[in-house]
Write a structure and sequence with these properties.
With about 400 residues, the protein is of the alpha/beta class. It has 2 domains: about 300 residues, ANL, N-terminal domain (Rossmann fold, 3-Layer(aba) Sandwich); about 90 residues, ANL, C-terminal domain (GMP Synthetase, Chain A, domain 3, 2-Layer Sandwich), CATH 3.30.300.30. Helix content is about 30%, strand content about 25%. The protein has 11 helices and 21 strands. Strands 4-3-5-6-7-8-9-14-13 form a 9-stranded mixed beta sheet. Helix 11 links the parallel strand 19 and strand 20. The longest helix is centred in the first third of the chain and has 20 residues. Bound molecules: 5'-O-[hydroxy(phenylacetyl)phosphoryl]adenosine. 5'-O-[hydroxy(phenylacetyl)phosphoryl]adenosine binds next to helix 6, strand 7, strand 8 and strand 12.
Amino acid sequence: MTAGAPFDPKIECMDPEARRELQEQRLRDLVDRLLGTDNFQGRKIREAGVTRGTDVTLDEIHLLPTISKQDLWDHYPFGLRIAPEEEIVCVHGSSGTGGRPTLIPYTANDIEIWAEVMARALKGAGATTKSTIHNAYGYGLFTGGLGVHHGGLKLGATVIPMSGGMTERQIRLIEDLKPDILCCTPSYALRLADDLQRTSIEVGIFGAEPWTEEMRQEIQQRLNIRALDIYGLSEVIGPGVACESLDSEGLLNIAEDHFYPETDQGELIFTTLTKTGMPLLRYRTGDIASLHEPAGQRTLKRMSKLKGRKDDMLIIRGVNVFPTEIEAVVLEHASPHYLIVEDRRTTTAQLHVVVESTQDIKAKLGQDLKERLGITCQVLVLEPGKLPRTEVGKAQRLARWTQGQAPIDGLT
Ligand code: DLL
């Protein structure tokens, strides 16, 4: 069997025409299900003139209304649920930007879909029934831990449910249990690399936060593994919406039989074709990426690594800057522990880039940043170990400074 083979070849390698028919049928069924409620989404599509599922086609999906995070907040906690309460088996979500939680109710059907797409992700990364998966994504409301867990069980591998934090204990178990697969955030993989030498780990499945190709190289070298990207969001299902496989050439295979993708000015939009708890029609993710045609054994559309988030884009003196562009330059000079500070204490915004190095890289890094971004950044070089590390949850790489004390000592 080829490494990174499909988990479900019938679906993952399906004839694209046949898949499109399946998607359209599922879309129509979803529209009927939404119209069958007096829920916000049902009302919106009725207002758009849709009276039944057969009124809509995939070709014209872009004419249907979209739904956003704001709508989820407006109907917090479960106003967008369409399944009866007794069919809900669990709730996940994220604390989200701005501290407002988003909660997603799942039915048993939704958990089954999630397990399946995660089993595809794991198998595509080379995991087998003999694999041991060290799962250091957080268990809880956050979807990372339990998403990998469900997928690992579905695949029939052995899951070590470590969750995040307690790094010493993680290192110990990696040495003792010899996992071949590591699942965690890319920043935590680097934290582990600080204390791990050669290990049994062959492949890492990293996501939940932005990371660049440069970061991938760094992780691959330091841990001597293949590092694959996995993407997802709780609103849509959790991890497993799209994931790289060993052979997907740096692009992420989208589970498009369940999550129909579109882009609008670079922003990813997903329709959950099969979910029953809280399905979403044309959910605006805020994430920026591009869609690509299939290649290789799978016939699924693919997406690029995330380029950033719509709300992450910094506008500094009229220039648009994505934090991932800064990361790419930083990694050419310094370690991946860095902090970007958006300084808005005065009307002329400034960017500070704080890095760790033992060398005098200030001038060269400043010059390269200027070349790549087109703006001057203030560079602060600290001794290694001075920037805070993230042990649990997502790395915080961007701080806003509007008044008072600097977010990190040494900035002026
Ligand atoms: O982060 C789900 C997940 C868990 C994905 C584990 C991958 C691995 P949320 O907490 O709802 O869900 O956050 C979703 O995180 O809209 C993106 O902005 C960001 N994100 C997720 N995966 C990636 C990735 C999970 N591979 C939000 N690269 C999404 C960059 C990512 N950003």
